[in-house]
Specification:
There is one protein chain. This protein is α+β, with helices and mostly antiparallel strands. The strands form eleven sheets. Strands 6, 7, 8, 9, 10, 11, 12, 13, 14 and 17 form a ten-stranded mixed beta sheet that branches. A five-stranded mixed beta sheet has the order 2-1-23-25-24, covered by helices on one side.
Length: 1236
């Protein structure tokens, strides 16, 4: 992060922001009730929500980027006259806060208070082959998202210290409830300082500390259970065999936050005759079982890797098959239903890896009928099964090992590997990756010159480069899935193998977990309550809902479709953490992804229940107690046909709650990160169709946005906006169970991360860790920005401007610091310009605004308003910023430059008002301030979107033409002034021209006219497309009138094709849509000044020579420069101490008085107004210049030069004469000027 030289401008903006925020708070600008909204005339309602952030730390730019989409949308919809509601809750459910608090307690127990820790050391871990690639990141190391945010300490106490907390303060965090009191108010404070348009009365924290929210969640789950959406059964969890129970975070010695990792267990059959060591098992089905995260690559198997010196076991499974793997993996499997007795591994054979090398195998999906078990020395025992499937087409480790084995005959001989087991096997193309081809691993290994398996750094880089790109951009080449994206084919391929009995689901901890009793934990299938998202009818409802959605982004639609297809059971309960207890089985807590699916409905009534208190402990405005909120009361509020309940709550109060819900619901926009599509957003959809199955599906509204979809109306979700991550997303953890005490990352690779997203693993909290500029956001690099730091550095509006510019689509977004700095300057300059205009109001031009540039500016403003309106409506905020600020300001700057006669005050006022309104959703503080400068009586929050007038597109294009001509003139003048090429040492610069002639053509030259006619014919015949150049060239070649021009014809066609893509079919017109000579004539003074020439004349091309006639065509004028001869004279100023000096200028034939003064003004920039200059000649041209001027009588013995006077020059004699009123006078070599 670079340091600024000064902060005056950002301090100016921050001062404005504090004043404006106080004004809004005093006016309660964003508080809105259904009763008030319904009574006011409006264009409808707009209800927007954002996934509530987790309260274990300060908010950062990751949160801010996503929620800015809600904020900008609300700002725009307010201007469009809608009643807008933006509530904001704060999430505390789950394990992270409780685990952090408990960790602090343990640290105090073990190390004292304040604790004295042993030296912290980090052990380097060798990366095994069968783990996926770790993306290298200097800023990350092995830290989790939370650890990256809070420092490198592995102790919770150290992490809290890094937040600036004292030891006395940290002690209080050992109680989980203190977190709930500490961070939520800070979050609200930070969001208010951003200027968020939130109705804070509706804010709340989750968990049972808020009795109203607790009651709401209990009602939701009772309803879901009654509707048979919640069931009880076995689920995967981390389990301690020694303790005989699930091992939650608080029970762990190491491995806090680690969860189950799903693998596909590939069954690779051993083909008879069996190896000698297995011969005693003849007649049994024997399988080498390989755990993979990439089932979609199994069609590319060429062999199976075994480590020769590793111990393996064969054990009998529940159906009598024999599985060969490591003892550690078998122990895990025994708790997952693989064996007849839970926790008992019936070992039938113990063997070393070398004893099964060379075994003939039959692997699922591969094109090779038989493959072989081959040696690999780098397999690790603490991950997977010790058996590794080999896919050399797409795995750099595999192709390198296979090449080593092929090259080293001695290595093969050592382990008894015959040539026919290795040499015939070549990589099988299964995935096409852009830039890497269909054999990505061989390609990248060749490119990086990887020689052997020992090139670990290069292999890590190779995997880093192809794995992520392969998963997201790779296209399958395998029959049955050809043309599908890898990420879309992954689950179907896995399902196919599972259905065919060729694979099984296998789980193990993501990394080692040790219980406090010293036991290494496994993954076990344990009884749990779960939401049955795989239930056919419920899944069908979700699919039907999705069919009616208009996503406008196929990637988002495919992600939803894929998620709904594979989504099965989701565990909704756990025994540890914070949250609401299951109302029918209170030993269980409802986990955090399950209590956060329909809380948007709670927003509609929260302000009337909990008394403006986050914990719901304030006095209810309606006098309703939490214990009165029975299930029947909630039913009445949220279900249209529910009967009135038996309750002591007055009916008027319940009806008011019901009115709030029915007015605001459904949610009109929900903005979220794209990483939540496979979990939260899909659960959000499922739960809405479950809670409101009938009346919520009757209206579908579509709206554009990359990643935006609208769904079920009435009481279902309507819009979901899925912006990209801040670029590029930290791969270690986008969502997961980690909290601010984590030491290590949850995900070790993009694929492993994706695997978690697409498994049924319970995920807890989410928060983006974003990228700012080219460095990863991290405390260690000083590049991690919390929201409050960003506002302090850039101001709220400066930051908001950069967020708007950070990106709109599901592609990764980028918060650019230089953009934020530039935004500060732009906003400051904008405010100062407005002040300047208002201060100089009387000097602006008045009267009719009818000049060419007046009309152009008015049309460009109207066009900008319309385009910006469309972009806001589509939620394309980067484009709205472009059209509504950058291009809008550029139109003003162009008007100021072109309007030689001065800007018109009415247009300037219209511009200021329109610009303020267009920018208000992005930068509301500055715009509110400007609105006040304009003397507006009400807040801009009550203003309306500007109403655009007519747009003359032809006029705008004629102005663009003028700008292009001016640019072309400058380029041609520069080339004219360049030293002549050729002669060595000749660097003489040509004399600057004084005059220019611009030729314009009414028609194209005959050969161009003919060519365009042919192109026009093809364009119309082909439905708005031009055919291939070969077809065009063939026809043009056949035309006799084009024979001698053929060398120029096809380049002309290429130029027309290029212009056609940019400007549309009008480039094929044979005549321009406007009079280019009239446009240039009306702006001749501007053109003359822009190239600093004396005079520009306009002529038609027909008046020029043959070259001009050939090179000049409509819209492409031709210009020639020349130097008109002149005679130098002195121009003296006799006025004392006025800053104007004597100079020498050229007088040319036919000059008038004004021409001389304009020439003077170019040399003396202190003269602004031609009418203020008086030009005179000496009565005695010989002696006059020699006399000393008398003070106060500077015009004595001099005669003024009149308007109609004309100068004539005699080049040979170098004399200048003046003709006035028919009389010719010799002026000598000196003229006099006086500036009034």
């Amino acid at each position: 992060m670079t340091e600024r030289k000064g902060t005056a401008k950002v301090d100016f903006l921050k001062t404005i922001e504090k004043e404006i925020q106080q004004k809004w708070e005093n006016e309660k600008a964003f508080e809105v009730n259904a009763t008030d909204a319904a009574s006011h005339k409006s264009n409808g309602k707009y209800f927007v929500t954002f996934p509530y952030p987790y309260m274990n730390g300060r908010l950062h730019l990751g949160h801010t980027f996503s929620l800015s989409k809600c904020e900008f949308a609300v700002g725009y919809q307010r201007l469009k006259g809608k009643s807008c509601l933006f509530p904001f809750g704060l999430h505390c459910t789950g394990m992270p806060i409780k685990a952090c608090a408990d960790k602090l307690k343990r640290e105090m127990e073990l190390y004292g208070c304040p604790p004295e820790f042993p030296d912290e050391e980090e052990e380097e871990e060798e990366q095994p082959k069968n783990e996926e690639v770790v993306i290298k990141d200097k800023a990350k190391g092995k830290k989790s998202k939370a650890a990256a945010k809070t420092g490198s300490s592995k102790y919770q106490w150290g992490i809290m210290r890094s937040l600036g907390l004292s030891d006395e303060e940290i002690m209080r965090f050992s109680e989980a409830e203190h977190w709930l009191d500490f961070f939520p108010p800070l979050a609200i404070q930070d969001l208010k300082s951003m200027g968020l348009k939130v109705d804070w009365r509706r804010s709340f924290i989750t968990t049972d500390v808020n009795p109203y929210y607790d009651s709401f969640v209990r009602w939701q789950f009772l309803t879901l259970k009654e509707r048979n959406k919640i069931k009880f059964g076995k689920r995967y969890t981390i389990y301690s065999p020694k303790d005989g129970q699930p091992c939650m975070d608080h029970d762990r010695q190491t491995g806090e936050g680690v969860g189950p990792q799903e693998y596909t267990l590939i069954k690779i059959r051993v083909v008879e005759p069996y190896p000698l060591k297995l011969s005693g098992l003849k007649g049994k089905n024997i399988f080498l079982v390989a755990a993979t995260l990439r089932p979609e690559t199994m069609a590319g198997q060429t062999n199976c890797w075994i480590r020769p010196d590793m111990k393996y076991i064969g054990f009998e499974t529940v159906n009598g098959d024999i599985f060969i793997c490591t003892q550690r993996a078998a122990r895990n499997m025994s708790y997952q239903g693989f064996t007849k007795i839970t926790g008992v591994v019936p070992v039938v054979k113990e063997l070393m890896g070398e004893e099964i090398l060379g075994a003939a195998l039959s692997a699922p999906l591969t094109s090779y009928k038989v493959i072989y078990a081959l040696p690999m020395l780098t397999i690790k025992e603490d991950k997977g099964t010790g058996v590794v499937s080999s896919v050399p087409s797409d795995a750099p480790d595999d192709i390198t090992a296979l090449r080593d084995l092929k090259k080293k005959q001695a290595f093969r001989a050592k382990y008894g590997i015959k040539d026919e087991m290795v040499l015939p096997f070549e990589p099988v193309p299964i995935i096409e990756i852009p830039g890497f081809g269909n054999l990505s691993a061989p390609f990248i290994c060749d490119e990086l010159k990887i020689q052997s398996q020992n090139d670990r750094e290069k292999l890590a880089e190779a995997k880093e480069r192809i794995y992520l790109k392969g998963f997201y951009e790779g296209i399958m080449l395998v029959d049955g899935y050809k043309g599908q994206k890898v990420q879309d084919a992954k689950k179907p391929i896995q399902k196919k193998m599972l259905d065919n009995g060729e694979a099984m689901i296998y789980m193990e901890p993501e990394k080692q977990v040790m219980s406090r009793s010293g036991d290494e934990c496994v993954v076990a299938l344990c009884d749990q309550w779960y939401l049955d998202y795989g239930e056919e009818n419920w899944k069908q409802q979700a699919h039907e809902c999705l069919k009616n959605l208009e996503t406008f982004c196929e990637e988002t639609r495919r992600n939803f479709e894929a998620t709904l297809s594979w989504l099965q059971e989701h565990a909704c309960s756990r025994t540890y953490g914070l949250g609401t207890r299951l109302p029918w089985d209170e030993q269980w807590l409802i986990e955090s992804l399950s209590d956060s699916t329909i809380y948007m409905a709670f927003y509609t009534v929260a302000h009337l229940l909990q008394g403006n208190n986050l914990r719901g402990q304030g006095e209810s405005p309606l006098g309703i107690r939490a214990n009165q909120m029975t299930r029947e009361v909630w039913d009445y509020i949220f279900f249209k046909t529910a009967p009135y309940p038996a309750t002591k709550i007055p009916k008027a109060s319940l009806d008011r709650l019901k009115q709030e819900f029915e007015y605001w619901y459904p949610v009109d926009l929900r903005a979220s990160g794209k990483d939540l599509v496979p979990n939260h957003l899909s659960y959000y959809l499922y739960n809405h169709v479950a809670m409101w199955p009938v009346q919520r599906l009757d209206i579908v509204v579509t709206t554009k946005v990359a990643g935006l979809w609208r769904a079920i109306d009435k009481q279902g979700p309507k819009d979901i906006y899925v912006p990209g991550h801040q670029y590029p997303v930290r791969l270690e953890r986008l969502i997961g169970r980690k909290m601010a005490g984590s030491c290590e990352s949850k995900w070790t690779s993009p694929l492993k991360f994706r695997e978690d997203l697409t498994s049924s693993t319970t995920v807890e909290c989410f928060a983006l860790v974003e990228k700012v500029d080219p460095e990863m956001m991290s405390k260690s690099t000083g590049n991690f920005l919390t929201l409050t730091q960003a506002i302090e550095k850039f101001s709220a509006d400066g930051m908001r401007l950069a967020l708007a510019d950070a990106g709109d689509t599901v592609e990764d977004a980028n918060f650019v610091e230089s953009m934020a700095d530039a935004g500060i300057l732009r906003l400051y300059t904008w405010v100062e310009w407005v002040k300047e205009m208002l201060a100089n109001w009387d000097s602006l031009r008045s009267g009719s605004a009818t000049t060419f540039n007046d009309r152009v500016f008015a049309s460009e403003m109207n066009s900008g308003i319309m385009k910006t309106d469309q972009n806001y409506e589509k939620m394309m905020f980067k484009e709205a910023l472009k059209t509504g600020f950058f291009e809008f300001q550029a139109a003003k700057d162009k008007y100021r430059e072109l309007a030689i006669e001065g800007m018109h005050r009415d247009l300037v006022l219209q511009f200021i008002e329109s610009q303020t309104l267009l920018l208000a959703p992005f930068c509301p503080h500055v715009c509110e301030h400007v609105w006040g400068l304009l003397g507006k009586p009400e807040s801009i929050m009550k203003a309306s979107w500007p109403v655009p007038g007519p747009v003359d597109e032809v006029l705008i294009r004629s102005s663009q033409y003028l700008t292009e001509v001016a640019h072309e003139l400058r380029l041609r003048l520069k080339n004219y002034m360049a030293p002549a090429k050729g002669k060595k040492g000749s660097k003489e610069t040509p004399q600057k021209p004084s005059h220019c002639t611009i030729y314009v053509a009414k028609n194209y030259p005959p050969w161009q006219h003919t060519t365009l006619s042919v192109l026009q014919k093809h364009y119309q015949a082909n439905g708005g497309q031009l055919p291939d150049n070969k077809i065009i060239a063939s026809e043009l070649n056949s035309l006799p009138e084009l024979k001698k021009y053929m060398k120029r014809v096809m380049p002309f066609v290429a130029m027309i094709k290029e212009s056609l893509e940019k400007k549309g079919p009008r480039v094929l017109d044979l005549e321009l849509e406007f009079d280019e000579r009239a446009v240039l004539m009306e702006n001749i003074v501007y053109l003359t000044n822009s190239v600093e020439l004396e005079h520009i004349e306009l002529k038609f091309a027909s008046e020029g020579d043959e070259k001009i006639k050939e090179d000049c065509c409509p819209g492409k004028p031709f210009c020639t420069f020349r130097v008109e001869p002149g005679v130098s004279v002195f121009l003296v100023n006799p006025q004392p101490a006025n800053g104007h000096f004597s100079t020498k200028i050229e007088v040319r034939q036919g000059d008038g008085r004004d021409a001389i003064i304009r020439r003077l003004m170019k040399m003396d920039r202190g003269i602004k107004d031609l009418s203020k200059v008086k030009l005179m000649r000496f009565d005695d041209p010989l002696l006059g210049p020699r006399r000393v001027p008398l003070l106060g009588k500077e015009d004595a013995e001099k005669s003024p030069i009149l308007d109609q006077a004309v100068f004539h020059i005699d080049i040979a004699a170098k004399r200048v004469h003046l003709i006035e009123n028919g009389l010719t006078t010799d002026i000598g070599d000196t003229l006099v000027y006086i500036v009034n």
